[in-house]
Structures are given as structure tokens and as C-alpha cells.
């Protein structure tokens, strides 16, 4: 369906809809008319909100929507300050399509006015927006053998015998059992650590004259980071209050391939930054079939 509303009206409607979604119990009116307390005459308001605090105290909020090509200036803020003072509202909010000058933000903060921007499937362009990065982390189990000189015959090693819980099993069966047994603790560790490690080892029964052969399985991580320009933002950001309401979305992740797809770049685990981040962990829940396959193919 075609939208015949001019761009400024579409912007006002979007702001009104978002405000209504933030507080479903509030009375949010687009293109409202209230009295000017100085003149006693009716005056148009872009968005007028009436709600209450604790179900007891009445609160009125005046929202002005500026769909300009340039950032909002101090002079334009001054005009809003005058409108706010004669409106009878307790709080003033300005939504600017193109942002605000530095001076405007400083004055708005002193006046207690919230300067906001609305985003719809847009990249996060504001430097003060929540600084975070998105990471895709894939667990990559690594086989390690100790006590073997020269080239490793993986089929022979994985089919050798070892003892797990008093039972004689093949190496690939034993490692699978030990590795999978650590899975619940490993999942909990992910909530506390960015790249936790699960590790297990098995001493093999062999005819080696060198000494015992130790076979280990250790988790490593292949890490990808989403590029800044690939993020999309939906919601509202108050620059003066430094508060974001809404959601971020990263590039799509290809769960079938080793590389997550366009928009993701490979990095080292030591390049992961602390702080506000989104992390997608892809862990190996059942290593058995993979080890059994390698025991056959070598």
C-alpha cells in the first residue's frame, strides 16, 4: 500500500507510534491541540502524551518532531523552549531526523530536554551510541598427541585402546565420552568467559617402545567480528540521556558453513574487546561422530 503522507508527517507518525509502544498505558496523541497558557488560544502539538506516575501523579509530555535535512540548532531549540514553557507540559522531548549540533545538546541537557533520534533499519551513526561489537565464535576441537615421533597415523591412534571409568574402550570412544561429559559445565562457563576451554586426555595402550602415548582433545575458538557498517538499529536513542530503547541486528549468520558469511571478518581471540558486546557461540555438543569418522578415514 502506497503511503501518500509527506515525509515530515511520516516522521511524526513514527515517533508517536514508538512513544505509544514504550508506554502502552499512556494517552499518546499525534497532531494534538492544547491551550497556550500565555495566550489562551489553541495550539497544535506534534505529539502530546498524558500519563501518570505510580497510578497517582499526572504527567504531561510535549514531543516535537523535526524532519529537517540539517542538524537542529540552538535557535531552533530556543523556539521549542518557549513552546514548552507555555504548553503546561512537565517534560519536553525533541526528535530530530538529522541530529543536533553540539551546542544544542549542551543547552538541552541544562534545560532537561531530551534530544532523541529514531532509527529504522539504519546503521548506528551516533558516536555516543552504546559502544559494542558483535562476535561469532565457533568451537573447533583440536586433537593433540604426545609420545609419537614422526608422522601421526590418526586411524591407528584413534583405534588404539584406553581405559575410561574402568572400561577398556577405543581412543575415539573414550575421548568422546570424556569430552561430552564436560559439556554442561562448558555451557555454564560460556556465560562467565568469552572463550572457555574444555580439555580431556587419555593414555593409550600401545606397543610403543618410546613410552606411553597421550591423546588429548582441546577446544579452540575461531572468531569472527561483525563490521560496524553491517549493524542495523531499530528504535529510539536519547542523546542527552544516553539511553537506547529498541534492538540491534547483526549480519545474518550462515550456520551451515565454517565462515558465517558476508559482514563478518576473521579475528584472533585476543582481539575480542570487553564491555558491551553481542556474542554468538556455536559449540560442538556431540564430538563422537566426528572422531569416529576420523578413526576410519585417518
Q: Beta-strand level of the residues, as a percent range?
A: 35-45%
Q: C-alpha Rg, in Å?
A: 30 Å
**Biggest β-sheet: count, sense, barrel?**
7 strands, mixed
CATH class designation of the largest domain: Alpha Beta
Give me the count of strands: 14
Helix and strand run:
HEEEHEHEEHEEHHEEEEEEH
Strand adjacency order, main sheet: 1-2-3-4-5-11-12
Q: Which structural class do you get from the secondary structure elements?
A: alpha+beta
* Count of discrete domains: 2
Inertia-based shape: elongated
Low-confidence sequence ranges: none
Kindly state the percentage of residues in helix: 10-25%
Tell me the distance between the termini. Answer: 60 Å
Instruction: Please count the helical segments.
Output: 7
What is the CATH architecture assignment of the largest domain?
A: 3-Layer(aba) Sandwich
CATH topology of the largest domain: Trna Endonuclease, Chain: A, domain 1
Please state the average pLDDT score: 90
Question: What does this protein look like?
Answer:
There is one protein chain. The protein is of the alpha+beta class and 298 residues long. It has two domains: 7-122, Trna Endonuclease, Chain: A, domain 1 (3-Layer(aba) Sandwich), CATH 3.40.1350; 134-224 and 284-297, no CATH class. Helix content is 24%, strand content 39%. The protein is built from seven helices and 14 strands. The chain has helices at residues 7-22, 74-85, 102-111, 154-158, 171-181, 183-190, 288-297, and strands at 27-35, 42-53, 57-66, 91-96, 114-122, 132-146, 161-164, 167-170, 199-205, 213-226, 232-238, 243-249, 264-267, 276-282. A seven-stranded mixed beta sheet has the order 1-2-3-4-5-11-12. Strands 6, 7, 8, 9, 10, 13 and 14 form a seven-stranded mixed beta sheet that branches. Strand 4, helix 3 and strand 5 (114-122) form a beta-alpha-beta unit. Helix 2 packs parallel to helix 3 and helix 5 runs antiparallel to helix 7. The mean pLDDT is 90.
Amino acid at each position: 500500500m502506497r503511503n501518500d503522507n509527506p515525509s515530515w508527517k511520516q516522521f511524526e507518525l513514527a515517533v508517536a507510534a514508538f512513544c505509544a509502544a514504550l508506554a502502552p498505558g499512556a494517552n499518546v496523541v499525534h497532531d494534538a491541540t492544547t491551550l497556550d497558557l500565555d495566550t489562551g488560544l489553541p495550539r497544535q502539538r506534534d505529539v502530546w502524551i498524558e500519563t501518570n506516575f505510580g497510578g497517582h501523579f499526572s504527567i504531561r509530555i510535549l514531543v516535537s518532531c523535526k524532519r529537517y535535512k540539517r542538524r537542529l540548532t540552538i535557535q531552533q531549540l530556543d523556539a521549542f523552549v518557549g513552546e514548552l514553557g507555555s504548553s503546561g507540559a512537565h517534560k519536553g522531548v525533541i526528535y530530530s531526523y538529522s541530529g543536533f549540533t553540539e551546542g544544542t545538546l549542551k543547552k538541552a541537557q541544562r534545560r532537561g530536554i531530551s534530544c532523541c533520534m529514531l532509527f529504522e533499519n539504519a546503521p548506528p551513526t551516533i558516536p555516543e551510541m552504546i559502544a559494542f561489537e558483535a562476535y561469532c565464535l565457533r568451537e573447533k576441537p583440536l586433537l593433540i598427541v604426545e609420545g609419537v615421533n614422526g608422522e601421526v597415523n590418526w586411524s591407528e591412534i584413534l583405534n588404539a585402546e584406553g581405559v575410561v571409568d574402568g572400561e577398556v574402550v577405543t581412543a575415539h570412544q573414550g575421548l568422546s565420552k570424556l569430552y561430552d561429559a564436560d559439556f554442561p559445565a562448558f555451557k555454564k562457563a560460556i556465560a562467565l568467559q568469552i572463550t572457555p576451554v574444555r580439555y580431556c586426555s587419555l593414555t593409550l595402550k600401545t606397543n610403543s617402545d618410546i613410552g606411553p602415548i597421550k591423546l588429548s582433545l582441546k577446544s579452540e575458538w575461531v572468531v569472527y567480528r561483525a563490521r560496524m557498517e553491517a549493524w542495523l538499529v531499530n528504535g529510539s536513542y536519547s542523546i542527552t540521556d544516553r539511553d537506547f530503547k529498541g534492538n540491534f541486528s547483526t549480519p545474518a549468520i550462515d550456520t551451515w558453513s565454517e565462515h558465517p558469511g558476508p559482514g563478518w571478518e576473521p579475528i584472533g581471540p585476543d582481539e575480542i574487546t570487553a564491555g558491551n558486546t553481542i556474542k554468538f557461540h556455536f559449540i560442538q555438543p556431540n564430538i563422537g561422530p566426528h572422531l569416529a569418522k576420523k578413526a576410519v578415514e585417518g
